[in-house]
Amino acid sequence: MQWNILFFFNSVLLGVGLAMDAFSVSLANGLNEPHMSRRRMLGIAGVFAAFQALMPMTGWVCVHTIVQYFRAFEKLIPWIALALLGFIGGKMLIEGIRGGGDDDAAPGLGLGALLVQGVATSIDALSVGFTIAEYDRLMALVCSLIIAAVTLCICLGGLVLGRKFGMRLAGRAQILGGAILIFIGLEIFISSML
């Protein structure tokens, strides 16, 4: 592969495709925390972007080193995403139902939950390491950084939208956010199995 406009265009398209799950989770996070600060939004989007950069590079390294082990792990990816997003979404649903209409007490997203979301939404990006296997190390790194930049922008958009609608939806926002996370987990699982 050469450095040309097609390389950059393909990297941006990969970023858009990979960021869709992170966008949906960002939307749910914004719904769950409608008074989120801009700094916090940038931090959350940054975590998703970092995972979206790390996973393709990890996949690329696997292709160039331990391919046979990664292929066995690849079958577990939909199960892991379903379990992680189902757990977090279920927890949000339960808290939303128990909390009733107490909008001001909506808990913020903790670091542990954010890291789990980052892994769950980017684990399918490991497979991108196979598609960029023909790239040299520098091209793979640049591709991963482009994916991260696209993800950062898309997730910020999701957080802004979620925050805006979260203020309007008040007490139902956490329930809706949890349902979205569960739906995303199911979507990843079902589309991977078909």
UniProtKB/TrEMBL annotation:
Transmembrane regions: 6-29, 41-70, 76-94, 106-132, 138-161, 173-193
Protein localization: Cell membrane
Domain of life: Bacteria
CC annotations in GO: plasma membrane
Topology term for the membrane: Multi-pass membrane protein
Listed Pfam families: Mntp (PF02659)
A GO MF term: manganese ion transmembrane transporter activity
Main location: membrane
Keyword terms: Cell membrane, Ion transport, Manganese, Membrane, Transmembrane, Transmembrane helix, Transport
InterPro entries attached to this UniProt entry: Mntp/YtaF (IPR003810), Put_MntP (IPR022929)
Family to which this protein belongs: Belongs to the MntP (TC 9.B.29) family.
Function statement: Probably functions as a manganese efflux pump.
Protein name: Putative manganese efflux pump MntP
UniProt lineage: Bacteria, Bacillati, Bacillota, Clostridia, Eubacteriales
